[in-house]
Protein backbone atom coordinates (compact mmCIF):
# COMPACT_ATOMS: atom_id res chain seq x y z
CA UNK A 1 0.00 0.00 0.00
CA UNK A 2 2.79 2.39 0.91
CA UNK A 3 4.62 1.41 -2.25
CA UNK A 4 1.52 2.16 -4.38
CA UNK A 5 1.11 5.57 -2.69
CA UNK A 6 4.77 6.33 -3.36
CA UNK A 7 4.38 5.44 -7.08
CA UNK A 8 1.23 7.55 -7.34
CA UNK A 9 2.97 10.52 -5.75
CA UNK A 10 5.97 10.11 -8.05
CA UNK A 11 3.69 9.87 -11.05
CA UNK A 12 1.76 12.95 -9.96
CA UNK A 13 4.98 14.91 -9.43
CA UNK A 14 6.25 13.87 -12.86
CA UNK A 15 3.02 14.99 -14.52
CA UNK A 16 3.12 18.27 -12.61
CA UNK A 17 6.76 18.83 -13.60
CA UNK A 18 6.00 18.23 -17.30
CA UNK A 19 2.96 20.50 -17.17
CA UNK A 20 4.92 23.33 -15.51
CA UNK A 21 7.75 22.91 -18.00
CA UNK A 22 5.35 23.33 -20.88
CA UNK A 23 3.92 26.49 -19.33
CA UNK A 24 7.30 28.13 -18.86
CA UNK A 25 8.67 27.43 -22.34
CA UNK A 26 8.28 30.48 -24.57
CA UNK A 27 6.72 30.00 -27.93
CA UNK A 28 9.24 30.46 -30.77
CA UNK A 29 7.21 33.36 -32.16
CA UNK A 30 7.77 35.39 -29.00
CA UNK A 31 11.28 34.20 -28.10
CA UNK A 32 13.12 37.39 -29.11
CA UNK A 33 10.38 39.82 -28.09
CA UNK A 34 10.71 41.67 -24.81
CA UNK A 35 7.65 41.38 -22.56
CA UNK A 36 7.48 45.19 -22.18
CA UNK A 37 7.36 45.56 -25.97
CA UNK A 38 4.47 43.10 -26.20
CA UNK A 39 2.51 44.30 -23.20
CA UNK A 40 3.01 48.08 -23.03
CA UNK A 41 4.04 49.03 -26.55
CA UNK A 42 1.48 46.55 -27.91
CA UNK A 43 3.73 45.22 -30.64
CA UNK A 44 3.51 41.60 -31.77
CA UNK A 45 3.82 42.28 -35.51
CA UNK A 46 5.89 44.88 -37.41
CA UNK A 47 4.68 48.46 -36.95
CA UNK A 48 5.16 51.40 -39.29
CA UNK A 49 6.63 54.45 -37.57
CA UNK A 50 6.99 57.97 -38.92
CA UNK A 51 10.39 58.18 -40.59
CA UNK A 52 10.71 61.85 -41.52
CA UNK A 53 7.61 63.88 -40.62
CA UNK A 54 6.79 64.03 -44.34
CA UNK A 55 4.58 60.95 -44.58
CA UNK A 56 7.26 58.32 -45.10
CA UNK A 57 7.26 55.43 -42.68
CA UNK A 58 9.59 52.59 -41.82
CA UNK A 59 8.56 49.24 -40.38
CA UNK A 60 10.09 47.93 -37.18
CA UNK A 61 9.59 44.38 -35.96
CA UNK A 62 8.93 43.44 -32.35
CA UNK A 63 12.52 42.15 -32.24
CA UNK A 64 13.79 45.55 -33.50
CA UNK A 65 11.89 47.33 -30.73
CA UNK A 66 13.19 44.83 -28.18
CA UNK A 67 16.74 45.56 -29.35
CA UNK A 68 15.97 49.29 -29.13
CA UNK A 69 14.71 48.83 -25.58
CA UNK A 70 17.94 47.07 -24.66
CA UNK A 71 19.99 49.91 -26.18
CA UNK A 72 17.85 52.42 -24.25
CA UNK A 73 18.41 50.51 -21.01
CA UNK A 74 22.16 50.34 -21.59
CA UNK A 75 22.76 53.91 -22.74
CA UNK A 76 19.85 56.23 -21.89
CA UNK A 77 18.08 54.95 -18.79
CA UNK A 78 20.21 56.85 -16.27
CA UNK A 79 18.81 60.17 -17.46
CA UNK A 80 15.56 59.11 -19.13
CA UNK A 81 13.86 56.66 -16.78
CA UNK A 82 10.22 56.23 -17.84
CA UNK A 83 10.66 58.79 -20.62
CA UNK A 84 11.46 61.59 -18.19
CA UNK A 85 14.54 63.76 -18.64
CA UNK A 86 16.11 63.97 -15.21
CA UNK A 87 18.61 66.78 -15.98
CA UNK A 88 15.77 68.91 -17.42
CA UNK A 89 12.29 67.66 -16.46
CA UNK A 90 10.47 70.11 -18.77
CA UNK A 91 11.96 68.32 -21.82
CA UNK A 92 10.65 64.78 -21.43
CA UNK A 93 10.38 62.12 -24.10
CA UNK A 94 6.59 62.47 -24.22
CA UNK A 95 5.21 62.60 -27.76
CA UNK A 96 3.96 66.21 -27.51
CA UNK A 97 7.34 67.37 -26.16
CA UNK A 98 9.20 65.53 -28.94
CA UNK A 99 6.90 67.13 -31.53
CA UNK A 100 7.37 70.61 -30.04
CA UNK A 101 11.17 70.57 -30.25
CA UNK A 102 13.03 72.51 -32.93
CA UNK A 103 13.50 70.65 -35.17
CA UNK A 104 10.76 68.15 -34.28
CA UNK A 105 11.92 64.88 -32.73
CA UNK A 106 8.67 62.93 -33.12
CA UNK A 107 9.95 60.82 -36.01
CA UNK A 108 12.84 58.39 -36.51
CA UNK A 109 15.10 60.76 -38.48
CA UNK A 110 14.49 63.61 -36.03
CA UNK A 111 15.42 61.45 -33.02
CA UNK A 112 18.48 60.05 -34.80
CA UNK A 113 19.63 63.55 -35.80
CA UNK A 114 19.24 64.68 -32.18
CA UNK A 115 21.23 61.70 -30.85
CA UNK A 116 23.97 62.26 -33.43
CA UNK A 117 24.13 66.01 -32.67
CA UNK A 118 22.23 66.90 -29.43
CA UNK A 119 20.75 70.39 -29.50
CA UNK A 120 18.76 72.36 -26.94
CA UNK A 121 14.99 72.06 -27.13
CA UNK A 122 14.71 75.26 -29.19
CA UNK A 123 17.53 74.12 -31.52
CA UNK A 124 19.70 77.18 -30.93
CA UNK A 125 22.78 75.58 -29.38
CA UNK A 126 24.47 72.29 -28.58
CA UNK A 127 23.00 70.45 -25.61
CA UNK A 128 25.36 69.27 -22.92
CA UNK A 129 22.73 67.17 -21.13
CA UNK A 130 22.75 64.41 -23.74
CA UNK A 131 25.92 62.82 -25.09
CA UNK A 132 26.65 62.65 -28.79
CA UNK A 133 26.23 59.20 -30.40
CA UNK A 134 28.62 58.94 -33.36
CA UNK A 135 28.27 56.30 -36.08
CA UNK A 136 31.47 54.67 -34.79
CA UNK A 137 29.76 54.02 -31.45
CA UNK A 138 26.28 53.07 -32.67
CA UNK A 139 25.73 52.21 -36.35
CA UNK A 140 22.69 53.58 -38.19
CA UNK A 141 20.66 50.36 -37.91
CA UNK A 142 21.09 50.27 -34.12
CA UNK A 143 20.37 53.94 -33.52
CA UNK A 144 17.20 53.65 -35.61
CA UNK A 145 16.04 50.76 -33.42
CA UNK A 146 16.73 52.90 -30.35
CA UNK A 147 14.79 55.79 -31.87
CA UNK A 148 11.95 53.42 -32.81
CA UNK A 149 11.70 52.21 -29.22
CA UNK A 150 11.57 55.78 -27.88
CA UNK A 151 8.98 56.84 -30.45
CA UNK A 152 6.73 53.82 -29.89
CA UNK A 153 7.03 54.20 -26.11
CA UNK A 154 6.05 57.86 -26.47
CA UNK A 155 3.01 56.77 -28.50
CA UNK A 156 1.82 53.81 -26.43
CA UNK A 157 3.49 53.28 -23.04
CA UNK A 158 1.29 54.35 -20.12
CA UNK A 159 2.89 57.25 -18.26
CA UNK A 160 5.87 57.55 -20.64
CA UNK A 161 7.36 61.01 -20.27
CA UNK A 162 4.60 62.14 -17.91
CA UNK A 163 5.41 64.40 -15.01
CA UNK A 164 4.16 61.68 -12.69
CA UNK A 165 4.29 58.03 -13.66
Automatic annotation (TrEMBL):
One of its GO terms (molecular function) is heme binding. Residues 63-154 form the Cytochrome c domain. Gene3D superfamilies: Cytochrome c-like domain. Its main location: membrane. InterPro entries: Cyt_c-like_dom, Cyt_c-like_dom_sf, Cytochrom_C550, PsbV_cyt_c550-like. Its cofactor is heme c. One of its GO terms (cellular component) is photosystem II. GO terms for biological process: photosynthesis; respiratory electron transport chain. Keywords: Electron transport, Heme, Iron, Membrane, Metal-binding, Photosynthesis, Photosystem II, Signal, Transport. NCBIfam families: PS_II_psbV2 (TIGR03046). This is Photosystem II cytochrome PsbV2. It comes from Limnofasciculus baicalensis BBK-W-15. The lineage of its organism: Bacteria, Bacillati, Cyanobacteriota, Cyanophyceae, Coleofasciculales. The gene is psbV2.
Amino acid sequence: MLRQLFRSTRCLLLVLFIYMSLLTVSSPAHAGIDKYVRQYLRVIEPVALDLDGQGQTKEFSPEDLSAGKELFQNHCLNCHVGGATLPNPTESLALDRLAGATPPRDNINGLVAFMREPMTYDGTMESFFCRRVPETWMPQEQIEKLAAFVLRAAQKAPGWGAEQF
